[in-house]
Amino acid sequence: MSVSAPEDIVSFLGCGTPEAWLRKAAAELPLLLVDHAQCEKKAASSALQLMFRYPEDIELSTRMSKLAREELRHYEQVVKIMQGRKVSDRKQTASRYASALRDCVRKSEPYRLVDMLIIGAFIEARSCERFARLIPYLDEELATFYRGLLESEGRHYRNYLKLAKERSPVDISDRVTYIREVEADLIRTPDSEFRFHSGIPA
């Protein structure tokens, strides 16, 4: 059954996931699951870091607390699937995607926070888009699981973007456009390592 990512997410991203990445993912499901588990842990960690860095922002902290709990539940669900398939969790090297997006973050506040929130929105939007695009390539168990993640990933994207807009002293459209171009370039260009958010397999 074909599933599409929400229209606002498709239009927010600068490009769709290339078919070459989807074919590679279907052929490397154990590695995909390991990195998916890593992504869920990193998402929870990023949310907690924002809570610690900006404790005075109660709305931000409350939303990040909920998001971190949800991401950790997703991690537990991925691990359960991995255990059923005899796939062992292991350390992963940092992905090109995450490192390059972090390089976009400005140093001074409130722009540092705004950039981190925009980047969070892009990561969640890309995850949602990839879950949807992957479904036709997957077995029934994984397809059902990824279909179930679409709503939460879309909600996380919208929460990040809303928080960024509310905390920026200026319109964020130009900043979103800039980061969109960086993110799309990472997705469309060759990548030496296969990861959940990697580019075209080299």
Automatic annotation (TrEMBL):
Coiled coil: none annotated. GO terms for biological process: tRNA modification. One of its GO terms (molecular function) is tRNA 2-(methylsulfanyl)-N(6)-isopentenyladenosine(37) hydroxylase activity. It holds the Pfam family MiaE. InterPro entries: Ferritin-like, Ferritin-like_SF, tRNA-Hydrxlase_MiaE. PANTHER family: TRNA 2-(METHYLSULFANYL)-N(6)-ISOPENTENYLADENOSINE(37) HYDROXYLASE, TRNA-(MS[2]IO[6]A)-HYDROXYLASE. This is Hydroxylase for synthesis of 2-methylthio-cis-ribozeatin in tRNA. It comes from Hahella chejuensis (strain KCTC 2396). The gene is miaE.
